[in-house]
Design goal:
The protein has 403 residues and is α/β, with parallel strands linked by helices. It folds into 3 domains: 222 residues, 3-Layer(aba) Sandwich (Isopropylmalate Dehydrogenase), CATH 3.40.718.10; 125 residues, 3-Layer(aba) Sandwich (Isopropylmalate Dehydrogenase), CATH 3.40.718.10; 39 residues, no CATH class. The protein contains 14 helices and 18 strands. The strands form 5 sheets. Strands 4-2-5-16-15-6-7-14-12-13 form a 10-stranded mixed beta sheet, with helices on both faces. The chain has a two-stranded parallel sheet with strand order 1-3. Strand 9 and strand 10 form a beta hairpin. The model has no long low-confidence stretch (mean pLDDT 95). NADP nicotinamide-adenine-dinucleotide phosphate (NAP) binds next to helix 10.
C-alpha cells in the first residue's frame, strides 16, 4: 500500500529518558510504515540542550511559529542532581516554560477515556479539559510578614509620578502577613482567545469562573475581558458551531463540575488551574492517559503527553530489565499533531489515519491488553499486562486490521 504523503513538515521535538525510547518505537512501528513522515527535527534531549546552550529549544519554538504544528516528547527539567548526572554548564530552564513564553500559549489537558478504567467520579463519562492561565497572580507575587503596629498600603505610581494609595490593613494587636498580586490585560486577553479558539476547534462548550463578587476589580477584570472578547470576536462563530460560553462563580463551577458528565473545557485562573487540574487528572486515573496541547492565541499548536520522562522506568530499562510504560499519551500527541496537520493542509487521509491509530490504541486496552499502570486500575475480567514494546505491537496488529 502506498504511504500517506504530507505537505508541510511537523515540528518534531525529541526528548529524554523513557519517553525518548518510546518516541522512537512509536515512529518505527506505528508511523513510518504508513506515512511518508515529514518532520523538522529538533533534539530537545538534555545533552543537546546543554551543547547548544539551550538555543535548540528557542529554535524549535520559532519553527513551531513558522509551521503551526509541533509534537513534543517529554523532557527533563534540570535540578541540582541532573547538573552532575549530565555534567551541565547551567541549570537550563524548563523547555516547556521557554516554548510557552515564546508562543504566548495556554495549555489544555484532557484525559483519554477507555472502557474498564473508570473515573473515580462515576458521572464523569466524557473528558473534562482543563485550561490553566499560566501567567501572574500568586505565582508572581510579592509578600511580606508584617509586625504589629504597622500600616500596610497599596501604592501605585503612574508614569508622571502621581501616587494613588489604598489602605490594605492597620495591624493592631497582632503581627500579620500581606501579599501583592498582579496580572496583565494582554495576557488575560491571550488566554481568552486561546480558550475560545480551542473550544471552536474541539466543538466543546467552555466554562470560565472567578470570584468576581468578592474581587470587584481584580477578578472582575478577568470576567470583563472574557465577556468583551467573546461578544466582539466569537459570539457568531460559537452560535454557528452550536457551542456555548458559560461564565459563573468559581464555587458554583466546582459544584457543577462534580455533578456534570464532562465533555467541556474548564478555563481556570492560574491557581484554580493548578489545583483543579490535579484533582481532575487523579479522578480520571493514570498520568499515562493524560494529553496536553499548547494553543497560542494566533492558532499555533504544540501537542505532548502531560507526564514526564518516567525516570524510574528508564533506569530499569538501562539495566536491561523489562518495563511496562504506558505510551498512550505520547501516541495521542502524535495523532493530535497529525490530525491538525491533515486539517490545515487539506490531507483527509492523514487525519483519517490518525483517527484509526487512536481507535486501535483504545481498542487494544478495551480488549484487555495494557501496561502495568492500567492493569492495576482496569475492571475488565480478562486482562493481560504487557511490556512497553509488546503494547505497541498489539496496537499495530489492530491498526493493520483497520487499514
Ligand atoms: P513522571 O515522569 O510523570 O513520572 C512519575 C511517575 O508516574 C512514574 O515514576 C510512574 O510511576 C508514573 N508514570 C508517569 N507516566 C507514566 C507512563 N507513561 N506510564 C507508566 N507510568 C507512568 O514525573 P517525574 O518522575 O516527576 O519526572 C521525571 C522527569 O520528567 C523529571 O526530570 C521532570 O523534570 C520531567 N518532566 C517533564 C515534563 C514535560 O516534559 N512535560 C512534565 C513533568 C515532568 P511508577 O514509577 O510508580 O511506575
Ligand atoms: Mg498542581
Amino acid at each position: 500500500m502506498a504511504k500517506i504523503q504530507m505537505k508541510t513538515p511537523l515540528v518534531e521535538m525529541d526528548g529524554d529518558e523513557m519517553t525518548r525510547v518510546i518516541w522512537k518505537m512509536i515512529k518505527d512501528k506505528l508511523l513510518l510504515p504508513y506515512i511518508d513522515l515529514r518532520t523538522e527535527y529538533y533534539d530537545l534531549g538534555l545533552v543537546k540542550r546543554n551543547e547548544t546552550n539551550d538555543q535548540i529549544t528557542i529554535d524549535s519554538a520559532n519553527a513551531t511559529k513558522k509551521y503551526g504544528v509541533a509534537v513534543k516528547c517529554a523532557t527533563i527539567t534540570p535540578n541540582a542532581q541532573r547538573m552532575t548526572e549530565y555534567n551541565l554548564k547551567e541549570m537550563w530552564k524548563s523547555p516547556n516554560g521557554t516554548i510557552r513564553a515564546i508562543l504566548d500559549g495556554t495549555v489544555f489537558r484532557a484525559p483519554i477515556l477507555v472502557k474498564g478504567i473508570n473515573s473515580l467520579i462515576p458521572t464523569w463519562t466524557k473528558p473534562i479539559t482543563i485550561a490553566r492561565h499560566a501567567y501572574g497572580d500568586v505565582y508572581k507575587n510579592s509578600e511580606m510578614k508584617v509586625k504589629d503596629g504597622s500600616k500596610a498600603e497599596l501604592i501605585v505610581t503612574d508614569k508622571d509620578g502621581n501616587e494613588t494609595r489604598q489602605l490594605i490593613h492597620e495591624f493592631k494587636g497582632s503581627d500579620g502577613i500581606i501579599q501583592g498580586l498582579h496580572n496583565i490585560n494582554n495576557s488575560i486577553a491571550s488566554f481568552a482567545r486561546s480558550c475560545f479558539n480551542f473550544a471552536l476547534d474541539t466543538k466543546q462548550d467552555i466554562w470560565f469562573a472567578t470570584k468576581d463578587t468578592i474581587s470587584k476589580q481584580y477578578d472582575h477584570t478577568f470576567k470583563d475581558i472574557f465577556a468583551e472578547i467573546f461578544e466582539t470576536e466569537y459570539k457568531g462563530k460559537f452560535a454557528e458551531a452550536g457551542i456555548e460560553y458559560f461564565y459563573t462563580l468559581i464555587d458554583d463551577a466546582v459544584a457543577r463540575v462534580v455533578r456534570s458528565n464532562g465533555g467541556y473545557i474548564w478555563a481556570c485562573k492560574n491557581y484554580d488551574g493548578d489545583v483543579m487540574s490535579d484533582m481532575v487528572a487523579t479522578a480520571f486515573g493514570s498520568l499515562g492517559m493524560m494529553t496536553s496541547v499548547l494553543v497560542s492565541p494566533s492558532g499555533v499548536y504544540e501537542y505532548e503527553a502531560a507526564h514526564g520522562t518516567v525516570t524510574r522506568h528508564y533506569y530499569k530499562h538501562l539495566k536491561g530489565e523489562e518495563t511496562s510504560t504506558n505510551s498512550v499519551a505520547t501516541i495521542f500527541a502524535w495523532t493530535g499533531a497529525l490530525k491538525k496537520r491533515g486539517e490545515l493542509d487539506g490531507i483527509p487521509e492523514l487525519s483519517a489515519f490518525a483517527e484509526k491509530l487512536e481507535k486501535a490504541t483504545v481498542k487494544t486496552i478495551e480488549d484487555g491488553v495494557m501496561t502495568g499502570d492500567l492493569y492495576v486500575l482496569s475492571t475488565l475480567e480478562n486482562k493481560k499486562k504487557v511490556n512497553t514494546e509488546q503494547f505497541l505491537d498489539e496496537i499495530n496488529i489492530r491498526l493493520k486490521e483497520m487499514i
